[in-house]
Amino acid sequence: MALLEIEGKAFEVDGDGFLSTPEIWNDEVAKLFAKYDGIEEMSDKHWVIVKYIRKNFEEKGNAPMIRSICQETGVKLREIYELFPLGPARGACRVAGLPKPDGCV
Amino acid sequence: MAELTEKNINKGLTILENFKDSKLLTNLNSCVHCGLCAESCVYYLTFKEPYFVPAKKVDLISSIYKRYFTFIGKYVPFLANTKEINDETAKEMVDLFFGACTMCGRCNLHCSIGIDIAYLVRTGRMMLAQMNLIPASIQSTVDSSIKTGNNMGITTEEFVDTIKWLEDELQDEMNDKHARIPLNDSNVNILYTLNPREPKFFPLSISAMAKIFYAAKESWTISTKMYDVTNYGFFTGNVDEATVISKRLYEEVINLDAKELILAECGHGSRAFRWEAPNYLKKEFDFDSNTSVELIAEYIKTGRIKVDKTKLKLRVTLHDPCNLVRNGGILKEQRYILDQVVSEFVEMTPHGIDNYCCGGGGGQLAMSEYNERRMKIGERKAEQIRNTNAKIVVTPCHNCVDQLMQLNSFYKLNVQIKTLAEIVADAIIID
Amino acid sequence: MSWFILISKISFALCFAFCIYTLFRIISLGKPKDYAKTKGDINSSIKYSYTGGMSPVKKESAYLHLPTYIAGILYHLGTFLSLILFFLNVLGINLTNYLIIPIAVFLIISGICGVSILIKRIFKSELNSLSNVDDYISNVIVNVFQFVTIYYLFYLTPTYFVISAVLFLYLPIGKLKHAIYFFAARFHLGFFYGKRGVWPPQN
Fold this sequence. Notes:
The structure holds 3 protein chains of 3 kinds.
Chain A: E1 2-6, E2 9-13, H1 27-36, H2 44-60, H3 66-73, H4 77-83, H5 87-95
Chain B: H1 6-14, H2 22-28, H3 42-47, H4 54-69, H5 71-75, H6 87-98, H7 106-110, H8 117-130, H9 136-148, H10 156-174, E1 190-192, H11 197-200, H12 204-215, E2 220-222, H13 233-236, H14 239-255, E3 260-263, H15 267-280, E4 288-291, H16 292-301, E5 306-307, E6 315-318, H17 332-341, E7 344-346, H18 371-377, H19 379-388, E8 392-394, H20 398-410, E9 416-418, H21 420-427, E10 428-429
Parallel strand pairs in B: 1-2, 1-3, 3-4, 6-7, 6-8, 8-9
Antiparallel strand pairs in B: 5-10
Chain C: H1 3-29, H2 42-50, H3 60-63, H4 66-90, H5 97-123, H6 125-130, H7 133-154, H8 158-170, H9 178-195
């Protein structure tokens, strides 16, 4: 467990910077986490991806497949990697306040 | 951390007893504490603390061995600073064997004696597995594999939907309604595997490989039942679980009657199956297991796929995954491929069997408690990349890709990280 | 035969028996039974492990640490030379006077190398933290053995045989055992890299 401080606000996170208490997540948290990753301004596309990932997590308890993200949000695959340079897992899922997925991510 | 009971301690010690051959006995008795391994290790080079000298890891396991199984440990323990297993020792074992080593094996190569230090670290992890002390973070990845058949818990339905989606895209790209990503075909030449992070989050490499197979007119398939090339049991040291995972893949090759198994670009996964699985299962396999790196090199050499090296003008460098290169002898193939598919390829210094680990090996990527160390030891790799002035870093290992992606962002390298298949797919010419 | 020569001979016999036992144990445990299909050439790799693989240009433990490496090599050569002289002495073979001076000079140099390694072990924090009592005892015994060998080249003394006896009796207990295990370690490294086609190097 570690403490991540962004713009004066402190969050409990795991060693990888994923939120330890996903339930405290809100839009404000998303913006701050995104900023920490170098995404200064969350665009509409950022939001639609993050919101979809969050919805999936709240309903099913895990991160959605990249296929669902693309098909449900209409954002092209390659564009997702540009929007979130750390990728869908360490980038988008983290901003959406999910715990770190298992595996090589 | 789990309670350390006498029963668990004794279970841990069984690993140091009953030698199967002379390798463990030899390695436990060979270190002379010269300390010259220090400068060959990314951890020591980064932190410059005595704690991170590879010989410390050798010493830890040797001191335990000596304490329980040798004359010196039984009668004059102070001479060799022998160690009893107690809470303190167990904590040190977890931190050194799991948290301070990527098992890249660079120190083995440079050891003044020739001790297989990475093998001793793995033996230490095997002890911890017996003692019920595997870090929960990495164990959950193994649990997921055992329970769901893949390390990310992807359902068959989600997997099939993803592959169908990619197949549609392939048909569009090739402008051929017959282009396929075949699932569960039997009696094919090749059973191909994936790292679950591909279908879950990074499918470009699946598309790339499908395009390569399409261009080569290969008879191939992916199994929906067992496509996962990874085996985190190899990292945790729980041999029983590693055996279960290996056995599933082995049985699926037999079940689908494939002639050859092609292991995806995954350093530890290809190592775990190509080199360890026959030993887990205690049998010689009657089919060949090769990596996609070797296969693609073969396709280009024999002209089965045609490539155009002038398409990509950006400067490209290569990161050698430790498990594939230093521990798998695959060195020339990836260089041959890059020479054929990119116009400007530069090596890092050092490279090949002397390369530095990206920092994410040995299961580090899965253990967030050691994240800070992992990012710090990666700085060396980041500097190596920066010094090449390359715009693209290619590496045939998804685990390395992920670590390099993080280094790219953390150290602001401003490069693209790609698998070998992605680079090859972009260079392919379809007649 | 004097008592001191006798104890040195008995000690040597015990040490020799231990070495044979260790060697026998290593050989009878055998090489790993590896079921994976061999990719490289194991025999060439093992050969390489004992030759090119130990070359100072191939090992960072050598080329990044040249002074220590050279000191280590000289120190080991001095030890082998001292052991040879011990056998000659026990067999009653006398060296010609021409040889005594160069041998003594060499042993002084190798002895200084041994002392410098000892000093490094005491003062360098990485080494110090890694070291145990056995490391110091082993270093000191071998050093004393080399120095007393020099002395014995000029003046006969029972101490020489007593020190030799101490060395032979201590070898089986501590890290001096690497005299045997070193060769086994090189074998295993060669076997591992040969199986997988890593060694001999492909370029």
